[in-house]
Design a protein that fits this description.
There is one protein chain. The chain has one domain (21-273). 69% of the residues lie in helices and 1% in strands. The chain contains eleven helices and two strands, in the order ααββααααααααα. The protein has a two-stranded antiparallel ribbon. The radius of gyration is 21 Å and the shape is globular. It starts with 20 loop residues before the first helix and ends in an 8-residue tail after the last helix.
């Protein structure tokens, strides 16, 4: 830590520097704990809303599609299970991006006072959200199975790596968005409608087979389409085999992370002037 007890008049006093791998890990753990306690565990309503919101949406979609549109299911799978497997990861990704985009503003006071890797704030926000939501995802799968739905739990051997891959990709996108948000405050407002449109362009509420063949290549540009299909293969069919698409997806996730981190670090030195 820099010594701030004495300094000549007119000299520039630098913020104390927090560096070193051990200190950064401790700081990240502290941020992670803060995210969990302040957003979720600090109040009963925070934790309840994080779990009730996806369940409420699932219930609404189930009612609308089964009672109004008379959709029983797809490919021999009930509509409830078909949607639950894909909807919860999407909502987790949506919440993670929304929270991480504004995460730097939550640490503005610390950023102005202490020099530390600013991306730690984004990492903590993504990690806290996806950790809690993964626990909720597992709980929903157990509850759905308890009601007689044929969940293939051996598929978790694929689901866990997929969730980690999702975290890697989301972190890259979040780093990019969080950096832009510092300079362009409308990013968070534009993000929500973009995510909503993307959701309906992703086969979450419908199977990919219902999409016209001419349109499918365009949907394939959305990485979440691949993720949804892999989740259903694992949890609905119990298929555990790896294929070349997994390697491509990992490469895309890594590219998103490295690209987002590069942009973030290029802009990071200017954050203090705008926060």
């Amino acid at each position: 830590m820099a010594d701030l007890t004495q300094h000549p008049v007119g000299t520039t006093v630098r913020a104390p520097v927090v560096n070193g791998t051990a200190r950064n890990r401790a700081l990240l753990a502290n941020f992670f704990k803060r995210e969990l306690t302040t957003r979720y565990l600090g109040s009963a309503t925070g934790l309840a809303w994080a779990l009730v919101h996806p369940l409420a949406l699932l219930a609404v979609y189930y009612f609308v599609f089964t009672s109004i549109f008379r959709v029983a299911g797809f490919g021999g799978t009930s509509f409830l299970l078909f949607v639950a497997v894909a909807l919860w990861p999407w909502l987790a990704a949506q919440e993670a991006l929304q929270r991480a985009t504004v995460s730097l503003a939550n640490y503005a006071g610390l950023i102005r006072k202490v020099a530390f890797p600013h991306e730690l704030a984004v990492y903590a926000s993504i990690a806290a959200t996806l950790t809690l939501q993964f626990a909720g995802y597992l709980a929903v799968l157990v509850v759905v199975a308890a009601f007689g739905q044929p969940v293939r739990f051996q598929g978790l051997l694929i689901v866990v790596p997929l969730w980690l891959m999702l975290a890697l990709a989301l972190t890259g996108v979040a780093l990019f968005l969080a950096a832009l948000q510092v300079f362009i405050r409308d990013v968070e407002h534009v993000l929500m409608p973009v995510l909503m449109i993307t959701m309906y362009l992703t086969p979450i509420l419908y199977p990919l087979t219902l999409v016209p063949e001419a349109v499918r290549p365009w949907l394939a540009a959305n990485p979440f389409v691949w993720l949804v299909e892999r989740l259903r293969e694992a949890l609905l069919d119990g298929r555990l085999a790896l294929h070349w698409g997994d390697a491509v997806a990992l490469g895309v996730a890594l590219a998103l992370f490295l690209g987002g981190r590069w942009v973030f670090r290029r802009l990071s030195p200017h954050f203090e002037d705008f926060l």
